[in-house]
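Quick one, C-alpha cells below. Sequence please?
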C-alpha cells in the first residue's frame, strides 16, 4: 500500500480523497493555490503545498508544480480526483516517468476514451449500441452526405470535448455549413482540437450511466447504473440510483453488456459509461453509448449509498496492485434501496450566475440516511476562480418515494447565508409531480422555467 498520496485537486473531492487515505492509514498531501490557503482540504491533510496563484493554469493545471510538490513531500502516488487533470493522459504519463503511481486509468485508456470517435468505435466493436453517426468530418461535403444518410435532426460534437462546447444541434440542412464551422471553432478554442463528428439527435432522452471497476487484467464489475437526466446546459444537477426507468431484466442486460466491453479493453480503475436512453411507443428500450469518463465521477456517491462500496478506497487499492474482490463486489452491486444526490452550487437560482463570497451562516442537515460531501464552513469565502459546486447532499431511503421525502426534509434543514445558492431550485424541483413520478428527461429543467 502507498505511504503518502498527493491529492491533485481541491474542494469537496479533495476532502473526500483525504478521508479515504486516513481510513487506509495513508498520509495525504494537499496542494492549493493562494486563493485556497484557508480551504478545508488544506486544513485536514497531513501536509500542504502552495503551488501557485488562483488561475487554474498556474496552479491546479500546472503539471511541473504538482510534480515538484509530490517530490518535495516524498509522495509515492497522485490522486487527480475529477476535473482539472483527471483525464489528462500527459499528466498520467509524467507521473509514471517521475516514479509516481497515478491513481486512475492507464494513459492509453485515457487516449482511447478521450477521443469520442475512437471510444464509439471501440464500444460498438464489443457489442455496445451507439447512435448512427460518423467519424471525424473533414469536409462540408462529407457532412451533407452524412445528414442525407442519418436524417435530420443531427448533433455536431467535438471529438475531444465535453460540457457542451463544440456541440450544435442542426434541424435544417441550410444551417449545417455554418453550424459545422462554429462547432469546429469552439472545439479548437476549448480543447485545442477542431475535430467534429455527427450523430443522430435524440430529443429529450433520459441520461443513464453505468459505474464500472476494472483491474487491468480483464476482470470488471459493473456496480449498477445512475440516472442523471436532470441537467442544465449538459451540466448535471440531480443524480439517483438505481434508475427508475429500467426493469430488472433491462438493467441486467445493460450491465452485462457494459462489463463485457470494458473487460475486453482490460480497463484499469473506476470509470463511467454514459448513455442516452429512450423507449419507443411500443415500450422497447434503446440505449446509445455517448462516452466513457475514465475517472471518479461527482455523482459516485449515490452508487456508494446503494451498494456500500467505497469507490475511492477501491480506486486506491487497485492502483496499489491489490487484487479486485470480484465476487464480493458483484454481490454488493445489487442495489439496496434508493439514493438521490443534489448538487448545491454557489449561484443565483434564477440566472445561474456564480455567487462567490463569504458564508456568514451555515447549518447542514443530518439524521438517518443523510450524507453531506462538502468543503465549506461558516466564515469560508467561496472564491470566484473555480467551479460553483460547494456541496453535495445525498440521501438514501428504502425506496424512491422515501428517499424523496428524506431529501425534502434535508433541504428544508440546509441553511447557507451570505451567498446565493440553488437550494430553492432543488426544493421546488422535489415538489413537482413529474419528478415524483419519475417522468424525467434531459429537457426537464427547460420546462421548469
Amino acid at each position: 500500500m502507498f505511504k503518502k498520496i498527493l491529492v491533485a485537486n481541491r474542494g469537496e473531492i479533495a476532502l473526500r480523497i483525504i478521508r479515504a487515505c486516513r481510513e487506509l492509514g495513508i498520509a495525504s498531501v494537499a496542494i492549493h493555490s493562494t486563493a485556497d490557503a484557508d480551504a478545508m482540504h488544506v486544513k485536514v491533510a497531513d501536509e500542504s503545498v502552495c503551488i501557485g496563484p488562483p488561475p487554474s493554469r498556474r496552479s491546479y493545471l500546472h503539471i511541473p508544480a504538482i510534480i515538484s510538490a509530490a517530490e518535495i513531500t516524498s509522495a509515492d502516488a497522485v490522486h487527480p480526483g475529477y476535473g482539472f487533470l483527471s483525464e489528462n493522459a500527459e499528466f498520467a504519463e509524467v507521473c509514471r516517468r517521475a516514479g509516481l503511481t497515478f491513481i486512475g486509468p492507464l494513459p492509453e485508456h485515457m487516449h482511447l476514451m478521450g477521443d469520442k470517435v475512437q471510444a464509439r468505435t471501440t464500444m460498438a466493436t464489443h457489442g455496445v449500441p451507439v447512435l448512427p453517426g460518423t467519424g471525424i468530418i473533414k469536409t462540408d461535403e462529407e457532412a451533407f452526405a452524412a445528414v442525407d444518410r442519418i436524417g435530420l435532426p443531427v448533433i455536431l460534437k467535438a471529438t475531444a470535448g465535453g460540457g457542451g462546447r463544440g456541440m450544435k444541434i442542426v434541424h435544417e440542412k441550410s444551417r449545417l455549413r455554418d453550424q459545422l464551422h462554429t462547432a469546429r471553432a469552439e472545439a479548437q478554442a476549448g480543447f485545442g482540437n477542431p475535430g467534429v463528428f455527427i450523430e443522430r439527435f435524440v430529443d429529450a432522452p433520459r441520461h443513464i450511466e453505468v459505474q464500472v471497476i476494472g483491474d487491468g487484467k480483464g476482470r470488471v464489475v459493473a456496480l449498477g447504473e445512475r440516472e442523471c437526466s436532470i441537467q442544465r446546459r449538459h451540466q448535471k444537477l440531480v443524480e439517483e440510483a438505481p434508475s427508475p426507468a429500467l426493469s430488472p431484466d433491462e438493467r441486467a442486460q445493460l450491465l452485462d453488456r457494459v462489463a463485457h466491453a470494458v473487460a475486453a479493453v482490460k480497463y484499469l480503475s473506476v470509470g463511467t459509461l454514459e448513455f442516452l436512453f429512450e423507449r419507443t411507443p411500443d415500450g422497447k428500450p434503446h440505449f446509445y453509448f455517448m462516452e466513457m469518463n475514465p475517472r471518479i465521477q461527482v455523482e459516485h456517491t449515490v452508487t456508494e449509498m446503494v451498494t456500500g462500496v467505497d469507490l475511492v478506497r477501491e480506486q486506491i487499492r487497485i492502483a496499489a496492485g491489490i487484487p479486485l474482490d470480484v465476487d464480493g463486489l458483484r454481490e454488493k452491486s445489487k442495489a439496496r434501496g434508493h439514493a438521490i444526490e443534489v448538487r448545491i452550487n454557489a449561484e443565483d437560482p434564477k440566472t445561474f450566475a456564480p455567487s462567490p463570497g463569504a458564508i456568514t451562516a451555515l447549518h447542514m442537515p443530518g439524521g438517518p440516511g443523510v450524507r453531506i460531501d462538502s468543503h465549506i464552513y461558516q466564515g469560508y469565502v467561496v472564491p470566484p476562480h473555480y467551479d460553483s459546486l460547494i456541496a453535495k447532499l445525498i440521501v438514501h431511503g428504502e425506496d424512491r418515494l422515501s428517499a424523496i421525502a428524506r431529501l425534502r426534509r434535508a433541504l428544508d434543514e440546509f441553511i447557507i447565508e451570505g451567498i446565493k445558492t440553488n437550494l430553492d431550485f432543488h426544493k421546488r424541483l422535489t415538489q413537482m409531480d413529474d419528478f415524483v413520478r419519475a417522468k424525467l428527461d434531459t429537457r426537464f429543467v427547460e420546462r421548469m422555467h
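The radius of gyration is 21 Å. The chain has a mean pLDDT of 96.
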